[in-house]
Give the backbone structure.
Amino acid sequence: MRAAVLHETGQEKLEVLDDVEAVGFGPGKVRIRVRATGLCHSDISAMTGVLPQPAPFVPGHEGAGEIIEAGDGVTGLAPGDRVLLCWLPACGSCPSCRRGQPHLCLAGFMNAGTPNFARPGGDVFGFAGTGTFAEEVVVGAGCAVPIPDDVPFDIAALIGCGVTTGLGAAINTAQVQAGSSVAVIGCGGVGVSAIQGARLQGAAEIVAVDPVASRREAALRFGATEAVAPGELADAKQRLTAGEGFDYVFEVVGRSQTARTAYETTRRGGTLCVVGAGAMDDHLQLNMFELFFDEKRILPSMYGGGDVLRSYERAIALWRAGRIDLESLITHRVPLAGINDALAQMHSGEALRTCIEI
């Protein structure tokens, strides 16, 4: 079968090969024919080494498709079922799951250390235990979440990561209050989803911050009340909050520099929500006096917080009701053979989300 492979961490391009095999099928596993997958910035972070991931590997973790085969012991899933892939399935029995924090379950991360694929040259891993830049993937049954027949594969793929992460950051983690002021730094697919979440929560002012003009324009269509370049954020803070700062600031870039800007843009007693996934050696510096004196809440948001299965259901319900726009998040479409075009679109900032149709 075909799959896009990164041979070594740090390579800029993927190689689409036709000699890759999805491996590991057996009890408790399902084989999925991938139909659509989104390119998320986390895939690029894994390719560059910002996020740890063994190589060689097949990137992709935001996907949807059909069950081809279900292993022994799998219940509730059968060949032909339409599913989205959950890259962070909850085990249901660990301390995090028992505390009602299934998004912090580490069971899914353990999958990243087991090869999902093989080719004549040896084992190949799947990013985050999945690897959706492939025609087929074998995953644990908990990674396959059934979707209703009226949800297209491309929409389901987005819900599998970017939409859930952004909406959840505003609704679950920060719990944006009606009438509040919000700034979102970084307006790709996840940032725009956070904007939609803040709008749903009733925020009065939502300022989108991004260096790319097309993304700023898109953010306005998704619910931002104003869109500015990074150099204009200080002026927006002064104009809209009399210099006090915003009630909620979302950092959706994953860098200490923008996180520090987000902290300084948050009002005293306000909330900084860190959504971007950054590097382990990139440190955010705060002095102990400001941490105490400003009493700003710093809330990291992992996969949108809360129960991701419930978050999927909520996103589908909101999409059906026309309360969120998911179709417009997909600004580009490419076949698997054009995967490097998708990477270029992400690097340039022109894409909110590129859908790879497989």
